[in-house]
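Sat 14:20. Reprocessing the chain from the morning session after the first attempt stalled halfway. Input below, unchanged.
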Amino acid sequence: MATVELLTSEVVVPAEETPAGAVWMSNLDLAARRGYTPTVYFYRADGKPGFFAGDALKDSLARALVAFYPLAGRLGLDDTGRVQIDCTGEGAVFVTARSDYVLDNLMNEFVPCNEMRDLFVPATPAPNPPCALLFVQVTYLRCGGVVLGLAVHHSVVDARSAAHFVETWASIARGSTGDAPVLPCFDHKLLSARPTRAVLYDHPEYKPDPTPVHPVTASTYESAIITLTKAQVIALKARCAGASTFRAVVALVWQCACRARSLPPDAETRLHSMIDMRARLAPPLPSGYFGNAVIRTSALATVGEVVANPVDYAARRLLAATSQGDDYARSLVDYLEDVDAMNLPRSGISRAHLRAISWMGMSLHDSDFGWGVPVFMGPALMYYSGFVYVMQAPGKDGAVALALSLEPETMPEFRKVFTEELARLEL
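Finished this time. Tokens:
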């Protein structure tokens, strides 16, 4: 593995004066993982002068922080000890580095893991008040390419909000003359609990697993990136009539993981997922809602049911679990009002389970800072075994990339059975 040398580290403040005060955080913000989400964007050198020049990036970042001013603040506490965002305008951390990696070699070696995160994403402090919310690292590769690494505090943003910020920053950097980016909305009171709370559902995803099967820890995983071609995706969706790309792909991953783990047929397996509730609420949240607007949900079955049935069985179970609407979300927000957010389960899942996240809506074309779109974008590490991200494959219209982690002893068998299933799709 190549090395990275840090060159500079400074703080970038908003280009103009920004509102002071505090941003109240919803129960969904408090229920999110208390930590930073590290992501990486790989860019190939385009031969133009000023490619990812540090001064240009800092200037555009400072201007982006005017609209997204909470990201220039710090995590804080109100008088009752509730976490909030203190809009101090102190700024975001901006680091430059250089590496002897060549982009093509890096892409061949890269899998989300602690080592890659440490190379290409800035070091972050303990994610508790007071702490900075945004860290940026620009790493210049030996071949002229660049890795842009970000760490954003998850209590402040979900994936869609993080993408909204990056897309706005990129638009400013390239001097876009198109439509103005959507302005962010920081009114988290839109997701406050109701005066008369009504918890109508059980919400097991926010409770500890009552029957863990071979619990795993954050240090015991092997990760991989696997690409499904457009033809494979089309064939898989044909077997899962009516299923979205995300649901069809995850259904196959669930089935293959159950086989590879060699679990007893009567063991329960839970497929955890997340639903973006912005458009599902009544009324919908503003399109620029900036915060956490996703809820956990899950599909439960036995290993025997997932393995013995055609893949559309798992897809239908996932569809039922991810079709929740306003009443479910409001029930969850009300439930969380009486729960200590620090005691919510966040430290991993049982070896029988998976957690799948869709990044299908994160367009790589919107991450063009003026020197072309990234050739790859994805998570810099996986948090524990059983994590799955489903993403659009760069430069391959209709293809899908999976970033996933499994137990080291499971991954070889999973690769084998997953490859076999993909081959059957093409018959």
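Residues 110 and 301 are 33 Å apart (CA to CA).
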